[in-house]
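re: that complex we talked abt at group meeting.

here r the seqs, copy pasted straight from the sheet so there may be weird spacing, ignore it
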Amino acid sequence: MSSHSSLIESSATAQLELLMRGDLFSVELTQAYLDSIASRDANVGAFLRVEKDRALAQAASVDKRRQSNKPLGKLAGLPVAVKDVLCDQDTITTCASRMLENFRAPYDSTVVAKLKAADAILIGRTNMDEFAMGGSTENSAFQITRNPWDLERAPGGSSGGAAACVAADMAPLSIGTDTGGSIRQPAGLCGVVGLKPTYGRVSRFGLVAFASSLDQVGPLARTSQDAALLLETIAGHDLRDATSLDRPVPAYSQSVAEPLAGVRIGLVREHFAEGLDSEVASAVRDAVAVYESLGATVKEISLPHSKHAVATYYVIAPCEASSNLARYDGVHYGHRTDEAEMLEELAAERKALEAAKDEVGLSRLDSSLVRMYRKSRSEGFGAEVKRRIMLGTYALSAGYYDAYYLKALKVRRLIRQDFDEAFREVDLIAGPVTAQTAFKIGEMVDDPLSMYLVDLYTVSANLAGIPGISLPCGFDKSGLPIGLQLLAPPLEEERLLRGAHMYEQATDWHQRRPEI
Amino acid sequence: MSQLYTTVIGLEVHVQLATKSKLFCRCSTQFGAEPNTQTCSVCLGLPGSLPVMNRTAFDLSLKTAVALNCVIPKFTKWDRKQYYYPDLPKAYQISQYDLPMSSAGWLEISDEKGSFEPKRVRITRAHLEEDAGKSIHDEAAGKADSEIDLNRTGTPLLEIVSEPDLSSSAEAKAYLQELKLLLTHIGVSDCNMQEGSLRVDANINLHIDTPEGKIATPIVEIKNMNSFRAVERALDYEAPRQFRVWQETGQKIGEAPKQTRGWDDSAGVTRGQRSKEESSDYRYFPDPDLVPVLVTDDQVAEARKSLGELPADLRNRFVQEYGLSAYDASVIVNQGQGVTNYFEQVARESGDAKSACKWVTQDILRLLKDGEQEINAIGVSAANLAGMISAVNDGKLPKPRAKEAFELMLSTGSTAQQAIQELGIEQVDESALVELCRELLDKNPRVVADVQSGKVQAIGALIGQAKKLNPNVDPGRFREICLELAMESSSSE
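got the structure back, here u go
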């Protein structure tokens, strides 16, 4: 077990070297992680399903091909966990929803296809907030995921399982998705590296949509070097996604170790305002001081429209979600209510109305089709999903569209313009990922508005379509990780990774491990 | 005006574009396949699937819009039209809402028989959208289940909306015929109504002159018209119906909700379906899965260039170049490109457009109507018909026997030359003809006497005999010679 623990505590990049040299078998590595999952996940709950047999078979196949010198993909033999929102052909993809509890996609998402082509070992599917809506993973219809640093606390979300499994060494690499901060926020709260790429950098094909204009797939890992490795595997143009960018993918893992000489770092005035925890603020300021010691210049900048970012986000994202989730109607796939029961219920209602001679009630009684829709959807979706569907449906309704959706689109453009302005003066923007460290499980379940404010520092990047990274930059008095967020102009993931890497070289926060 | 009211009609036409694959995925659009065999994750709306625009569909719609004289904006986008129905798997239709790919066009209509004045019908807009699937409701007793076929889901449709510029069923029919002719001519759709490639909804109301001034009746949308004839009949039924309703209720536009009525073809009536009291809120918004389409001037110019000669141009040219009457030019061009090309080949190769026109508009069109066959399948090719006309003009084929030759060519596919041989048609030379006349006049002194006394028609009896003796005899010429000879003998006496 001790050799195991040193193995699984080493970086994915180091593991890959061992694998490539033939000093480590993928079966061995995969088994080490499976063992780790077996001993820790009962406490953490990061995985919805562990694909033990398939993973070992895949690992054995990689080992065999390596021994016979057959060509192998660039992640050959490395386990990767995948958020349960990316389709994997013929296996279940639930989005942590009752609605898709038994849904098997007949196709691979592009990201999963690329992982398979890279000979990554798909070790299991991680928990999330239902349809990626939430910031704590408590909205999963199936289970709670706990923060490995404090099991009483939430790992953040929606990619809570993706962050927790890396933090607890149950997978060296994992795939998350980020619509308003869903990679960066849990990465920050779990003390790992998480990168949200530029909108369009990674294909969304096969990613079950939450908010199409905001969703991006990205890597979670221990180090920026590992994140670079995973990003270069999944990024790239895809003809099946009209919004994907037709731009070459840099060799991130090659360039990541080059420090950014004389990098200009911007600190956003509005980020250091009321509500920011003092320990988080000082950790971020210390991190900036580290950059200065490495030759960076620091400048205060302003993003004047960032104060509207959360409001803008909570119009646009629910609008798109209400439309994207309309297809889950019980007709073609997904949860459908018990029809016999539903018809019986309708018949009883009709009888009662007839007995009462309630003509109005009768005229308003659902048709069986409408009742099927209603019941299937109310049974299949959880409270937060319903809340957002209602918000979005309302905001898109006749008479409200201009005031909400159209206005939000305009503010969105202003937010993007703020960034364009800022990036004329600085190369990277640094700031906190979240205002607080990990909160207690259940702390905000009855307070959706506070939960929405968890996205305060992260949503702007989604609205602007720019890339952002979260990396560990310290711990608070309770020993909970603090995240540093770096933002860069569109398609400058390389700059983000290099910036994160130079910080990691000067600090050791990323090497700390939770005790589980 | 003797009429009590004017009818105001606008048409919404959905045309299926002639692409091999659907608008946002690569599934086939072939009609008639087994249900649900032409589907994929995209058109089924499965989680995670994404639409990707079919460029060919866009190009075809651009071509159509240009042919309809529309304004083509440089920027157009896709919107989601949201509603729940089991044959709409995503619960939204990808369509175009406020920035359609074209607007403000027109189509000219006229009637060769002159039942209405030629007019320019304005086109409000033409936009591209995906079709929904097909719901099949089994209405048989005790069967409550509906079946859904999603083969059609995602098929590209161009919705062409006219302004309410049509004022009679005849105009509506002419508009549809001209539109169909144009679309099939430029090859963007087969416009097959039986297969649903062309669907028509009509909006109709009346403007009634009253002592208090002109009033408009509530607008009715008529659906379920499966042929141009049905459109004509439905409109002819609906206008007087609205007039009767107005006489009974006095309801004006705005006082009653817009109504949707279905045409019952066998009963010959429209029936109320649902009233659009609360107009559905489709919650349109831009589809975030698709990028806007930018159209350049070059692309529009390219589309214009690809159109070639349109039906209206052809009609004008036939009048100018071949000296056809406007009526004949219309009759030919309205038959579509096959007949038009056929006519032109016959006219060019024979050098006799008038005869070409006569043969095409009479004999060829009769064949097309009788046998419902395609112009290309007709036994007489354009080259052969041209050859036949030339033979007549060159005197190799007596005009009265041309029909006979045509029938033979039709059944055997032979050339005029072969038919002439087959029928044993030979030029009878003048001296032989004079000889024959003499012989017959000598045998029939009675006829000679009749002719001399002024009964010229008595010669007719001799023509029959002459044809029996030699079928190649040109009866006209024979008659002339006989008359001459008969008169000669009279003057010599």
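couple things i noticed - Residues 210 and 347 of chain A are 36 Å apart (CA to CA). The radius of gyration of chain A is 23 Å.
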